[in-house]
Every structure is written in C-alpha cells, then in structure tokens.
C-alpha cells in the first residue's frame, strides 16, 4: 500500500485495509496502527494503573497480542477493530490490577527498592490529582465509560459495542457518571451543558 496514514483520518474501509495489510506483514501498516492506537492504549492503562512503567508494559503486551492475532488470522470482528483492540486492553489492565493486588495486598505503591532506583515523578497539577481521585470513587463500570471515552477516544457507538450495551443505556450511564464526578468535585453543572465534560474533563484527564 502507498503508506500508513493515521487511522483516525480514515473511513472504516481505509482502517479495514490498514488492518488487513498489517496482518499480511506490511510493516508500514503495522507502524501506522501502533502510532495511532499506542498512545491511546497507554493513556487508558496509565489512568487505571497510575504507573507509567506498568502502563508501558501493558501497552507492549496488548500490541504483541494484536500482532499475533492479526498474523494468525484470528481477528474476526471485522469493522469493529477499535472496540476489539480496547477490549483486549481493558482485560490486560484488569489482569495487571489483580496481579498487583496479589503481590501487594496492602495496596501499597511501588516497592521500596523500585522507588530508590527511580527519580520521583513530578507532582501533577492539583486539578489533575482531584480528578484522578474522583475517578477512583466511581464504580468500575462508570469509570470504564469515562476512560474509554476520554482516554481511548472511542465513540459512544464503539463503547456500546465494546461493553455490549444498548447505545441509549450507555449514553444515560455516561451522563450519570459525569454528574457523579461533578458532585465529587463540588462543581455545579451548567443548566445547558448536560452532555459537556465537567471542568474541562476532556482536557485534564490524566
């Protein structure tokens, strides 16, 4: 193929062609998929794990799985590549969370020796910290919708496909999740902005 354009600028047919080419071993097509979806998978994993190294490991693991499934012809959800990819990513994140809880049942952060080896990360802005804390207080199902919308950058239709929910139900849950975040943050919703993100949610989600 002529080149691997950003998947977000292409229609469904173009994305399908890119996926087919990547599965056939076209390295340019594969790099195009990684360039488009790698940062979104990383953002999703980092939001849930709060650890950039763990998020990077998850991202690499997800794309290793995608590469194997594509090249072995095991991708069968044609036309729904993004929900398929992020379903794998969400499952990998959950596996990592469960493994971390088993290894550190007290819920502690990185091990002491890891902290000694690594420089302390810069403190995030107070608004980001508050939003992260608010997300932690959401039920997992609500948080999944917020993260898939604002980190994975999926459409509501794609999220509905991923979560196997009717679109109307998903939109209502998304609206309720935003209202919960507003209440946690103490932000009064604007009367005419029921579907907007509270306090610039789309811009400051970590």
List the topology elements.
Blueprint: H1 12-23, H2 27-49, H3 52-71, H4 81-103, H5 112-117, H6 126-137, H7 140-150, H8 156-163, H9 167-185, H10 201-204
Q: What does this protein look like?
A:
The protein folds into 2 domains: 96 residues, Rna Polymerase Sigma Factor, Chain: A (Orthogonal Bundle); 85 residues, Arc Repressor Mutant, subunit A (Orthogonal Bundle). Helix 2 packs antiparallel against helix 3 and helix 4 crosses helix 8. It is built from 10 helices and no strands. By secondary structure, the protein is mostly helical.
Name a few traits of the molecule.
globular; 2 domains; Rna Polymerase Sigma Factor, Chain: A; 206 residues; mainly alpha; Arc Repressor Mutant, subunit A
- Percent of residues in beta strands? under 5%
The name of the CATH superfamily of the largest domain reads RNA polymerase sigma factor, region 2, helix turn helix motif
What shape does the CA trace take? globular
What can be said about the biggest beta sheet?
none
Task: Please name the CATH topology of the largest domain.
Answer: Rna Polymerase Sigma Factor, Chain: A
Number of helices: 10
Please give the radius of gyration in angstroms: 18 Å
Terminal CA distance reads 36 Å
How many strands?
Answer: 0
